[in-house]
Request: fold
Amino acid sequence: MLSHAPAGLQAVLVLDDRTLGPPLIELRVASFTDASASIADASKSARAMSLKCSLAGLDAGGAALVVQDLPGLDRARAMGWLSRELQTLPGAWTVPGMGASARDMRLLAQEGASVDPAQSPREAALTQGVLRCLNTLAARKDKALGDCSFAIQGAGPIAQRLAEALAAVGGDIVIADHDPALSRRVADSLDVRMVPAHGIWSCDVDMLVPCAQVGLIGPKILPQIRAWGICGASTAPLADLESADALHQRGTIAIPGMVSCLGGLGKGLDMGGPGLSLDELAILVEELLDESQLTGRAPRAIAEERAWERIELAG
Reply:
């Protein structure tokens, strides 16, 4: 736990496996019900980052820094203080996640922390990667993206980019966010449907596109899902492997978030390589789905196995 009373800061930093190299830290800023919820979010995000780095071929481990978006938070002062804390981790880089703004990243950099120097290109590459994965998913049903319907969970910058791209090809879209004013603005700007946050899971659509908090799709949400495919910009939308297995057993094709979010990972960072190209990402997804169909195992289980193989070999 990290705290800095003068800035009203309460944060959690979780360092996951660092066998492959120094940590690549995902900065997340959000409101959580309590400290345990922020710790759970940070833990899932850090583990997902470790696996993503491995799958992308980066010489880096995973970590997550989750900042509680409290009413009294002095964001500028908090980021300055956090920057100095992050510099105690040799070789670490920080990239933006849910709720982290370009200004947050600039403030970290101003105080000396190593941050993503290509945020806009990285976001564009991440969006293109998710779109490539969605296209692969649609092809499994002999469909084009423009012939599919999508329920987008979240209305942040990446979710908006995805909604714009899917709307441009003619996809039918419904969107929801925990901030109804934000989802209303996005829905109105694109002339798409909006539903309350809790209603996004049960939408009668082809694909569910999670783009917000990690670990939400678990035992309570699973029975509500009607989509035949799941793929989005959330690093780890499923609560656990049991949830992934349950979806797979009922015929839902879920591309793991640790895979769909690989587009742009490593771009502009000095962490052993540029990461996967979009073509390499598409090949990885095809391999995972083919192996899943052949073995009867969930794609997430196969992806995790591949990631851990590289980590164990390095250890």
The chain has two domains: 2-115, 121-314.
